[in-house]
Amino acid sequence: MSHTNQYTQKLHPGSPFPDIQVNLADGSTRQLAQVNNSGRWQLVLIYRGRHCPLCTRYLNKLEQFKDQLADIKVDIVAVSGDSLAQLQSHSEQLNVSFALGYGLSLADMKTLGLFISDPRSAQETDHPFAEPGLFVVNEAGNIQVTDISNNPFVRPDLTSLVNGLGWIRDPDNNYPIRGMHN
Fold first, then answer.
1. What would the CATH number be for the domain defined by 21-170?
2. Which residues fall within 8 angstroms of residue 3, CB to CB, at 6 or more apart?
3. Which of 94, 119, 121, 153 has the maximum number of C-beta atoms within 10 A of its C-beta?
């Protein structure tokens, strides 16, 4: 495995989410940043892929929060660098009803500032894959919340995340985008 001195780029809160379109399992496509007039936000979850049992558990747990997120106008899309065949195979272990995307390219992973790993063996997977990333994109297409990890063991606690998003979405709290000091 090679190590380089290149640093990943970091997407900054408040900045436009990159214009990335993904293929969904149902054959449609979806923009990860959906600018809209309905005030809907989008939770974009990047996961490692079929080979990761922690991703499977996290995705299945996220399903438990889907209705609560919908109530606060937050839609969900989860995407990996897996192929369609890998996603279809993985779907047998998933009990989710939110959008699942596949084929996230290395270039898009880099654009998102994600950490990227090479498989340890052909048994793990057959392609470099993104480590976990989570982005909440507001109705203007800007990054409201971001969390990036370099391993599958560190991810936002979903109860805290969903409760926090509910608080942020309440206009009475007038909560700004955090982390914007340069």
1. 3.40.30.10
2. none
3. 94
